[in-house]
């Protein structure tokens, strides 16, 4: 899984779901390269940081009130 965060003025609608500074986009991927390619396909260059698999820390969710959202189906993902 690849996790993508967004800047203050980054907002995207993918599959009728808004992705912005208040959430983390979760992109199913087998490796970092695949995840980055999918992020560029989905969000072009308007995103901030990319984390692969366990690099995204649960304690950082305090900065993202809408949580982690799967880009494919809109499900919220729980890291606990």
In what range is the share of β-strand residues?
Answer: 25-35%
Strand adjacency order, main sheet: 5-1-4-6-7
Please give the number of β-strands.
7
Please tell me the total number of domains. Answer: 1
> What is the multimeric organization of the chains shown?
single chain
What's the helical proportion of residues? 10-25%
Our count of helices gives: 1
Low-confidence stretches: none
Radius of gyration: 11 Å
Q: What form results from the Cα inertia axes?
A: globular
Main sheet: strands, sense, barrel: 5 strands, mixed
Mean pLDDT: 94
Distance between the termini: 15 Å
Structural class: alpha+beta
- H/E series: EEEEHEEE
């Amino acid at each position: 899984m690849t996790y993508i965060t967004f800047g203050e003025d980054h907002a995207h609608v993918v599959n009728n779901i808004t992705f912005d500074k208040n959430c983390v986009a979760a992109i199913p991927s087998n490796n970092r390269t695949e995840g980055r390619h999918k992020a560029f396909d989905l969000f072009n260059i308007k995103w901030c940081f990319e984390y692969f698999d366990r690099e995204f820390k649960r304690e950082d969710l305090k900065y993202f009130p809408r949580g982690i959202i799967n880009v494919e189906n809109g499900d919220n993902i729980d890291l606990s």
